[in-house]
Design brief:
By secondary structure, the protein is α/β, with parallel strands linked by helices. It has 2 domains: 130 residues, no CATH class; 152 residues, Rossmann fold, CATH 3.40.50. Helices cover 20% and strands 18% of the residues. It contains 8 helices and 14 strands. The N terminus is likely disordered. Keywords: Glycoprotein, Glycosyltransferase, Golgi apparatus, Lipid metabolism, Membrane, Signal-anchor, Transferase, Transmembrane, Transmembrane helix. It holds the Pfam family Glyco_tran_10_N. It is found in: Golgi apparatus, Golgi stack membrane. One of its GO terms (biological process) is lipid metabolic process.
Length: 293
């Protein structure tokens, strides 16, 4: 099996977690093995500039091409390049052939005793495209033109906040990124989310015996539940003064936890082997663009 990955996201091949059955599969970046590969993973951002970036060697009969993207549609140019080429999809979309979310929670069966990190600050927000004409009271903003975020101290910095503004760059079905999963949930903050509707966050979707996407209602705060930013701000301030009510947003942790992800790319690729074993009859997708958008 051949994988094409961005140089910034290299990972050790054939080292999948035990819960993934990868018996009988070989992951390789050796392109000389292309003609014998059962599947080729095409990471969209690496092959979307020109069709010349796609494999040039004649495609073996019944070799499956897997389209992989972690980006939202408007940040995925030239989707038409994939017309009538792709056999399986892999993305954050639940209706992908291979579901590869940014994060998930699992049932820990009482094995984990979660303690809320010590809170000394109210709210944080990390953003790259910040409008200096906007004003935010009591919210510490990290990113360009604002406070510098030291990556090696990100856990220490964000875990001290009661709330984290997990605002997505674009609103699309199932597009819930590391802003929610890592910056907020994993670091022990209550996420204030803006993205797909609340119902999308609350979905409980068992993908297999190990992976679940279940976000309890009391695990986050959705901006759509408020009529104005002022009403949202007032609610956050009320939670800041009511310790018991604030702690209710962590009740779900008595049953669930977010598995650590040293490299989420590894987990995404590790799902390919099982997907190939369970793959539907060979078929080609006429338009990735029509499906994805």
């Amino acid at each position: 099996m051949e994988t094409k990955t961005n140089k910034l996201h290299r990972f050790a091949l054939n080292t999948c977690p035990k819960k993934f059955d990868n018996s009988g599969c070989l992951y390789t970046a050796d392109r000389t093995l292309y003609s014998s590969a059962h599947a080729v993973v095409l990471h969209h951002r690496d092959v979307c500039t020109t069709k010349r970036q796609l494999p040039k060697t004649p495609r073996p009969s019944n070799q499956r091409w897997i389209w992989f993207s972690r980006e939202y549609p408007s940040y995925s140019p030239n989707l038409s390049f994939m017309n009538n080429l792709i056999n399986l999809t892999m993305s954050y979309r639940v209706d992908s052939d291979i579901f590869a979310p940014y994060g998930w929670i699992e049932n820990h069966n009482g094995a984990i005793n979660f303690t809320i990190p010590r809170k000394t600050k109210l709210a944080a927000w990390a953003i790259s495209n910040w409008n200096p004409n906007e004003t935010f009271r009591e919210v510490d903003i990290y990113g360009r033109q604002r406070q510098k975020l030291q990556r090696d101290k990100q856990t220490e910095i964000f875990s001290a906040y009661k709330f984290y503004f997990a605002f997505e760059n674009s609103i699309h079905v199932d597009y819930i990124t590391e802003k929610f999963w890592y910056n907020a949930i994993s670091l022990g903050c209550v996420p204030v989310v803006m993205g797909p509707p609340r119902e999308n966050y609350e979905r409980f979707i068992p993908r297999d015996a190990f992976i679940h996407r279940f976000i309890p209602r009391d695990a986050f705060i959705h901006v759509d539940d408020f009529s104005s930013p002022q009403e949202l701000a007032s609610y956050l301030q009320s939670l800041d003064k009511d310790e018991e009510k604030y702690k209710q947003y962590f009740n779900w942790r008595s049953q669930y936890y977010v598995p650590p992800q040293d490299n989420p790319w590894t987990v995404s690729y590790c799902r390919v082997c099982k997907a190939l074993k369970d793959a539907p009859p060979y078929r080609t997708i006429a338009s990735i663009e029509k499906w994805f958008k």
